[in-house]
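Incident review: delayed structure delivery

Summary: a single-chain prediction request sat in the queue longer than the usual turnaround. Root cause was a stuck worker, restarted by the on-call engineer. No data loss occurred. The affected request and its eventual output are reproduced below so the record is complete for anyone auditing the incident later.

Affected input:
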Amino acid sequence: MNLANSLLKFFPFTQKNKYEKEQLVKMQSISLTGSISILFFLILSIILFFSSPISISIIYLTVTVVLFISLLLIQKNILTEELKQAFVFISGIALLFLLLYGEQTILGVFCFSILPLISIGILGHSKGWLYSIIFGILFGATLFIPLDFLMSIKEVPLSIKIIGIAIFLLPLVHLAFHDALRVNAQNQMEKQLLDQKSSLKLKEEFISNLSHQIRTPLNNIMVVANILENISNDEKQKDLIDTIHASTNNLVNVVNSMVEISNVDIKERGSININFSLYSTINSTIKLFSTQNSNQTAFTLKIDESIPQNLIGDPVRIKQIFLNLIESILKNRSSSKANVTIKVSKAKETDDSIELITEVSSNKPILLPLNEGHNLYITNESSLTSASTQMYIDLLELSITQKLIESNGGKLKIVLSAEDAAFSFPYTLNKTTTDTKEAMPIPKSDTIEFENKSDVSTPKSVDLENANVLLVEDNLINQKIVVLSLKKLVKNIDIANNGKEALDKFGTSRFDIILMDIQMPIMNGIVATKKIREIEASSNSHTPIIAITANALLGDKEECLAAGMDDYISKPFQIEVLIQKMKKLLK
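Output delivered after worker restart:
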């Protein structure tokens, strides 16, 4: 291997960087084979200079020069395929001429035997085989068919002829076995890869199902323990309930750790790389919030004109990052009115990629939810001098966003002050070679406002006690638990057993808020939410929807928000957290 690497460095033709990896390997093979072939003909012309008429030596020196020029043109990608075939054809004719008319007939026999190595090295397996077979037939006919003008060939011993044919066929036989072994090894590797993918998929499904199955009973235990704690006055009973609480919290931590392990290495899970429009991806993400913000909210999108219109990357991950950041700003904003600005500028650029600097900012400060109902207001930038960016990330539930950015080699930066809030990060995308002249131009600045208008039905603030709540849940125990938890705070709770039933009730009754499960028979919560939003689009109304689900793996929250839900809570949860979310949306 070290010798091969040394040879590759020795030949300057192999040191090109303008080729793709697969093409580079082919060009290295062609350069190495062509260079050795040229060296072979050069040595042959020198030998013939001393052992044959000078005219023969000049012919082969001319062949050497022609082959050298051909290889140079092949390296410059000029008529590559035609020149490669010409290279092999000229080599074959030159060697056949030496066999027929050279004075050193035995030398011609052995020299002709290297032609398969030249043809396969230059043309590859399939075409190399074809040229080798054609010249092999000519070679065999020349050696064994008795013709009067081939007197010198007749004088060659039969053993030399057989050895010459054997040397000629040896590379072809070796290549046939090598191909068979390569195909078999490739099939085995593909089978192992499919088995690994299948095993990984089964493990992910197992973790997802296990997490879902554990979270639901855990949630019920936590809620029942809270109810018992509120109605019990006995100290011994309260002590036992506290033990249940502690044990349940430990189990919750175990489940969360299990989910984090399944989500921890986003980079190795792989991502798609496709040609996409950065402007369209970000703009479509902004539009997801059009039906979720009844208060006056304006979005401004600014993309640097020097950034290419189309890039290569994973638009799903990019959409997920912006979805999380915008949702975090809107959920924790300190004022009902806010302007969210998204700026994308170019940091640096190479021939193949471009690094972008993205900033998502709000003109209003945001509140850090330290505890439910107890928010921390940032009075100045130094009020939390001991807090790190990681603290902000944890409080604002941006850990998945951070991992997505880090998987691209960047780092999420958060700056909070009493006047505004800003999230920034670098992101690298590949440049496309596709012609995009006809693509839609990117506007210098787009300002998209989602405001209250006179023809839009804006729901009034409703107290939780008087709210009409629709609980969409297929599990009878879960229904009972939620109703028991809310019945002292909410007068009117209606129940739907699946998404289809929820749609029917939504069409005949008015609800102030909907609590939506995700995994249900007949129609799941995602489909039901989308259909509800379609109905509301024609009536200019909006009903808040909170996802209450045991789905807590990577992307579950984003899927719920993208479907049109206003908030998300995963099981197990504290009932106070759900109540706070309901109150916030009802206002």
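Verification: The chain has four domains: 2-156, 194-268, 269-450, 464-586.
Action items: add queue-age alerting; document worker restart procedure.
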